[in-house]
Design goal:
The complex is a heterodimer of chains A (562) and B (87). With 562 residues, chain A is an alpha/beta fold. Chain A folds into 3 domains: 101 residues, Glucose Oxidase, domain 1 (3-Layer(bba) Sandwich), CATH 3.50.30.10; 102 residues, PtsI, HPr-binding domain (Enzyme I, Chain A, domain 2); 284 residues, TIM Barrel, CATH 3.20.20. With 87 residues, chain B is an alpha+beta fold. The mean pLDDT of chain B is 87. A 4-stranded antiparallel sheet of chain B has the order 1-4-2-3, with helices on one face. Chain B is globular, with a radius of gyration of 11 Å. In chain B, α1 runs antiparallel to α3. Chain B has one domain: Histidine-containing Protein, Chain: A, CATH 3.30.1340. The chains are: A alpha/beta (562), B alpha+beta (87). The interface between A and B is medium-sized, with 25 and 24 residues.
Chain lengths: 562, 87
């Protein structure tokens, strides 16, 4: 196995030496000392129950949204700084948003209880913000607070209150909502340390407005017992404690609630050739209300977009188990952290790159921070061992056989049963057969493969014609991967928006692709279309599209039924 | 009627700016929509929908309404306000 990228054999550890500071990100300058007290986490989602009376359930959801809106408006009135008041009034306006209510009403009609309906609708918005990266991603935390408040109202439980020990203290929390941050009194709270959060979050903005020292993205702070004296340096991000060696954080896996199998059964052609139809998800919350054969793309970076430090092993194991336990006996394909300077994760960010799409992203981040990938693989292996899901792990942005081999070796060392490579770089597509000699499967990411094959920025509206997935050159790259898979007897899947187009799915099946992963909502239409075509018809459509000279002719050729 | 605007505030179309735009659109009395290229149009009076456009500095948005140029101009001007993050 070629360790050509130089992954050193170092494993991260949660055990600290006495006196060594906890490290986070300084988000509001200044130094504060005091005993640490933790803000309890808000109530979580209850197990779902069937909806008996949809109208009553909708009224319950609307009443909770109204109550949260009033509560946020009241807090805006009590906020000391205008910035805090403005932010809270803006959040109150979101609670009253008509499209939010329409979405919630639709989710309730689809069978979700009020808290689950609100969580599902907000999760959709949250994913869109996280996917955008940068500043918008920092706003996702605001939606989490809104969700937590609505859930608490639906359950009739109070939101946890900021501690009042009767003397000045340092406030610690998993995350601190703007609604709480805006009301902090700097005479009573000396500093704030949160496990999540970042420099552009509203909480950081409010802490700066108050002159309150703050450190975000410091998950180790959650291990401190209440009353531990800490010194918080909001400039360096260091939290110093004289506490002894810390024990590893406990794992709190979410309760397993298996996702149902799809009503229409597994994906197959009219003559019974199986094509697995899998879901693209960013976390267990995306599986709410979904029926699927499995998960074909679990984007793990969405779980950690708020972290400045790499997430702890315990946090990771819990997040992975929540997904694995929902998919017993079914495949779950996990993509390791896919970050780079275009979708930065603070703990993986390197220097500013002039050309981020061509820089340190995907698996390449392991060249600089190998311990982050190792820790993720160890956490995935630990979660997989304790679950019944068929877990497979793949690396994004593999370019060479050597990179694929290095990644597969890491996975095998950790005891993971299946390691794969994402094909997004044309160089990898051209060497698919070689890569399949060192990994167990391939998954083609059509969006990036298209961007790199056509030298066209995927965000560029002006170049949309080049990024059309029906471009025959893109189909040819996918075809060579599928052919390598067929020859090696190993699975080759496609994930990416293109797989959600039923006509395109037929072509992919005809090329020999064995699974298609897409947004869960697209699965029924793809299943229906595949069920109408025999494998030979799919192959004829694929041949026609491959032989075309442009996307329009490829589409037309795929429509002709022999 | 259509206006095309470019987001200029450094923080993008964030929660406070979205709430300000939504309030102006709600007061317009006619339906106004905002579209980001390649995505469905969203109602301009819905702050959550505006926020989820995830518009950052340089993002172009199309604002559309049937009639009432003045209302449309007000919403377009708020979207394009470079100082929206100070409001």
């Amino acid at each position: 196995m070629p360790p050509s990228t130089g992954w050193p054999p170092c494993w991260p550890t949660r055990t600290r030496i006495v006196g060594e500071p906890l490290r986070g990100l300084g988000v509001s300058p200044g130094v504060g000392t005091g005993p640490a007290y933790r803000l309890p986490d808000p109530p979580g989602l209850p197990p779902p129950r069937p909806v008996v009376d949809p109208d009553a359930e909708r009224d319950r959801a609307y009443a909770a949204l109204d109550a949260v809106g009033r509560e946020l408006t009241a807090r805006a009135g009590a906020a000391a700084e205008p910035a805090g008041a403005d932010i809270l009034r803006a959040h109150a306006a979101v609670a009253g948003d008509r499209t939010l209510r329409d979405g919630v009403a639709a989710a309730i009609r689809a069978g979700h209880e009020a808290p689950h309906a609100v969580a599902a609708v907000l999760a959709g918005h949250r994913s869109a913000l996280l996917a955008a990266g940068g500043r918008p991603a920092a706003r996702a935390a605001d939606l989490d607070d809104l969700r937590n408040r609505v859930v608490a109202h639906c359950l009739g439980r109070p939101m946890p209150a900021v501690p009042e020990p009767g003397h000045p203290y340092v406030l610690t929390a998993t995350d601190l909502a703007p609604a709480d941050a805006a009301l902090l009194d700097p005479r009573r709270v000396r500093a704030v340390v949160t496990a999540a959060g970042g420099a552009t979050g509203h909480t950081a903005i409010l802490a700066r407005a108050k002159g309150l020292p703050a450190v975000a993205a410091c998950p180790a702070v959650l291990d401190l017992p209440d009353g531990t004296t800490v010194t918080v340096d909001g400039t360096t991000g260091h939290v110093t404690t004289d506490a002894g060696t810390l024990a590893p954080a406990p794992t709190r896996p979410a309760p397993a609630r298996p996702v149902p199998a799809p009503d229409g059964g597994a994906g197959r052609t009219a003559d019974g050739h199986p094509v697995a139809l899998l879901a693209n998800i960013g976390g267990a919350e995306d599986l709410t209300g979904v029926a699927a054969e499995g998960v074909g793309l679990f984007r793990t970076e969405l779980l950690f977009a708020h972290h400045i430090d790499p997430p702890s092993t315990a946090e990771q194991v819990a997040a992975y188990r929540a997904v694995f336990d929902a998919m017993p006996e079914r495949p779950v394909v996990v993509r390791t952290l896919d970050a780079g300077s275009d979708k930065p994760l603070p703990f993986l960010a390197g220097d500013r790159e002039p050309n981020p799409a061509l820089g340190i992203r995907g698996v390449r981040t392991a060249r600089r921070r190998p311990e982050v990938l190792r820790a993720q693989i160890a956490a995935l292996a630990a979660a997989a061992r304790r679950s019944r899901a068929r877990v497979a792990v793949m690396a994004p942005m593999i370019a060479t056989v050597a990179e694929a081999a290095g990644f597969a070796a890491l996975c095998r060392e950790a005891g993971l049963p299946s390691a794969g490579a994402m094909i997004e770089v044309p160089a990898a597509a051209l060497r698919a057969a070689g890569i399949l000699r060192v990994v167990d499967f391939l998954s083609v990411g059509t969006n990036d493969l298209s961007q790199y094959a056509f030298a066209a920025d995927r965000r560029s509206g002006d170049l949309a014609d080049l990024l059309d997935p029906w471009q025959p050159a893109l189909l040819a790259l996918i075809a060579s991967c599928a052919a390598a898979g067929t020859a090696a007897g190993r699975p080759v899947g496609v994930c990416g928006e293109a797989a959600a187009d039923p006509r395109y799915a037929v072509v992919l099946a005809g090329l020999g692709v064995t699974s298609l992963s897409m947004t869960p909502a697209a699965i029924p239409a793809v299943r229906a279309e595949l069920a109408l075509r025999t494998l030979d018809e799919c192959r004829a459509a694929a041949r026609g599209a491959l032989a075309a000279d442009d996307p329009e002719s490829a589409r037309a050729a795929a429509r002709v039924t022999p | 009627m259509i206006r095309t605007v470019t987001i200029r505030s450094a923080a993008g179309l964030h929660a406070r700016a979205a709430a300000t735009v939504a309030a102006a659109a709600a007061g317009a009395g006619i339906p106004i929509t905002v579209r980001r290229t390649g995505r469905p149009a969203v109602p301009a009076d819905c702050p959550l929908a505006l926020l989820t456009l995830a518009a950052t500095p340089g993002t172009e948005l199309t604002v559309e309404a049937d009639g009432d140029d003045a209302a449309l101009d007000r919403v377009a001007a708020l979207l394009a306000d470079p100082d929206a993050d100070r409001g």
